[in-house]
């Protein structure tokens, strides 16, 4: 009997880029944890943002079943990717196996996560500071990408993380960088949305930058753009964004 061909394709740069976009463009995701009492998988839905290095971040109530499960066993899986029209299985999706790391309020990264989370989820301001709410960073360990029928790939955690020495410096000045860019080019968000063929919506705004790209949001729409190469610093990010917005097609 002949060996059956493997359904897993060799992972290439296109697959890595698609996986990163699926993870970093998610506003919500399905999360699966292990029930500490029964050992059965327990699935729920969570809001998602990303840290400066692309690590997914969730904000959860300490009273929820999935938070209690993560306190007992840090292993979790995150499913991202919108179904869209037609056959749901024809659309790309990414399953990321993660280790959950709680981020308490006295953690040096807490304020950064709070700022980045609110940039995506403004309504979370109603409860983000409640004492029974907690951030988790979901550190990717490995991932399974299904890019559509016949397009399956395996990735490791490093394929999804932004490996840049500029992460912390860019994070520290992110708000100022975006503010300066908008002051110089008041229509930059609209120009980017038009150039990137974003869904028609009332208004777009830049809601996040990092060495690998930028995020824009309008209502329920979130757009993620990945640069061809990692930006070296904030000026490089602004230069990349200006070229995308204003260069001749």
Automatic annotation (TrEMBL):
Source taxon at top rank: Bacteria
GO cellular component labels: cytoplasm
SUPFAM superfamilies on file: FMN-binding split barrel (SSF50475)
Domain CREG-like beta-barrel: 12-155
Transmembrane segments annotated in the record for this chain: none
Name recorded for this polypeptide: HugZ family protein
Gene source species: Rhizobium redzepovicii
